[in-house]
Amino acid sequence: MQTSSTGSVGAPALLAARSLAVKVRDAAEAFARRFRCAPSWLACAPGRINVIGEHVDYCDGLVMPMAIDRHVIMAASPITEPVIKIFSEVNCEDAAVPLERTIERGQPAWSNYLRGVIHGYRERGETLRGLQLLIDTDLPIGGGLSSSAALEVATATILDLANQRQTPQVEKALLCQRAEHDFAGVPCGIMDQFASVFGRENNLLLIDCRSHEVTPVPLHDHSVTFLVINTNIRHNLGSSEYPLRRAQCEEAAQLLGIASLRNATPTQLDEKSGDWPEAIKKRARHVIGEIARTRRAADLVQGGDWHGVGELMYASHDSLRDDFEVSCSELDLVVRIAGEIGLDGGVFGCRMTGGGFGGCCIAVVDARRAEAVAATLGGRYQGETGIVPTMFVSRPAAGATPLELPLLPPKS
Ligand code: ADP
Ligand code: MG
To answer: Exposure string (b/e) for 220-235, b if CB count within 10 Å is 16 or more?
Structure first.
């Protein structure tokens, strides 16, 4: 559903947010339609945007994401058979994970995210009960907002709930990361799963990917909000380029003789990289600069300096485009238009978020002008590309949690 916007007729508008209570009610109703009984347990896990600190989590760096109010919601009830029967409401597909044997990768492909988490619990020595389970979501899938981590973390949350466990948060996030590595084949860092587990309302999360320390960065100033602009483009390059970037960063660290680029300084890089391949030098320059920008941005957020934060976001985007080479023309276009709207039009800063090669940009905007910014930005993006962007705003949201069935009237 699209809200009305201040833009002209036909201009892309902001998507309205459904409240969590409504999403939970809808998931419970979908569960009842599918399995002909009420769910015994409900849980949700949010997606995330990364405000700054991109492509540095796997270099032991600092990242500053926040959870958003878009979620994977799960509903489940017990069954006597030793199997977890899964239905995904979005793609109307079933999967079954037998609990009597070793959990292996299988079909459909999306079920591997859940299989990986179930495997992780079994490796911890947990005996799991049989379940029927429904997945609902209002997160764009494959859009760089981490629907995959939300899927894993929601799985862990509902397994905890249904099996009366309380896996410590760091262990839960790491177990989910392992699921993505081993069962989905994506060698991701820790940011996505940490953001989904540790999200906190009205707080960004400064995450030290070396020590796993999570420091909430308060953002109680409601005059700013985050506009997510999905370019609705996904270039296939992403899946092969991501492991390559990871390997290039490891190579740079090796050439510097250090464990990870977290420990490198710009001076060290200048002194030692004279005869390095150009690509390796550029990747290292991005990571070293991005970690410094993230540290500085956390201070500026605390001081309410949104102009300063915005400048760092533009610098981050430039570095991802020129040195890390993970942007694309559509992401660059959004950032360029946002810069042209500028402070006078209510935009503090903008950058790509997530792995790159398409997906989403985020802009920090004046909350009162978010609709107008979206109408202008979306309209111009559509005018230049012919693609309708999907846009919504989010404030920093809470992390994964068990849910109560809300006291809402049923959907007519
Ligand atoms: P992102 O995490 O940025 O959304 P990924 O490519 O990492 O993109 O993960 C997307 C994958 O996650 C999808 O291809 C699908 O396999 C899985 N996925 C996420 N949410 C759901 C869902 N609600 N139902 C089924 N599969 C899902
Ligand atoms: Mg993902």
So the answer is: eeeebbbbbbbbbbbe
pTM over 0.90: yes
Ligand 1 atom closest to the Cα of residue 108 is 16
Q: Which domains does the chain have, with CATH numbers?
A: 17-219 (3.30.230.10), 224-394 (3.30.70.890)
Cβ–Cβ contacts within 10 Å for residue 153, how many? 34
pLDDT digits (tens, 9 = 90+) for 169-227: 999 999 999 999 999 998 889 999 999 999 999 999 999 999 999 999 999 999 999 99
Instruction: For the chain, give the longest Cα–Cα distance.
Output: 68
Which ligand neighbours the alpha carbon of 74 most closely? Answer: 1
- Amino acid found at 27: A
How close is the Cα of 149 to the center of ligand 2, in Å?
6
Where does residue 211 rank: exposed (0-12), middle (13-18), buried (19+ CB within 10 A)?
Answer: exposed
Residue of 248, 237, 183 lying closest to 355 (CA atoms): 237
- Ligand 1 centroid to residue 287 C-alpha, Å: 27
**Structural contact between residues 209 and 57, judged by C-beta atoms closer than 8 angstroms:** yes
Check if the beta carbon of residue 148 is closer than 8 Å to that of residue 184.
Answer: yes
Angstrom CA distances, 321 to 164, 262, 282, 385, stand at 46, 21, 11, 19
In sequence order, the β-bridge partners of residue 84 are 97, 131
Count of positions (residues) in the chain: 412
106-163 per-position pLDDT tens digit: 999 999 999 999 999 999 999 999 999 999 999 999 888 999 999 999 999 999 999 9
Which ligand lies nearest to the CA atom of residue 360 in the structure? 1
From CA 100, how far away is CA 90, in angstroms rounded? 28
The terminus-to-terminus CA distance of the chain in angstroms comes to 17
Q: What's the CA-to-centroid distance between 146 and ligand 2, angstroms?
A: 4
The CB-side HSE value for 328 (13 A sphere, CA atoms) comes to 21
The answer to whether 301 touches 219, Cβ cutoff 8 Å, is yes
Q: Report the C-alpha gap between 244 and 256 in whole angstroms.
A: 18
Mutating to test ligand 1, I would choose from 151, 191, 235 the residue with most ligand atoms within 8 A of its C-beta, which is 151
Question: What are the start-end ranges of the E strands in 325-400?
Answer: 347-353, 358-366, 390-394
Q: Which atom of ligand 1 is nearest to the CA of 93?
A: 25
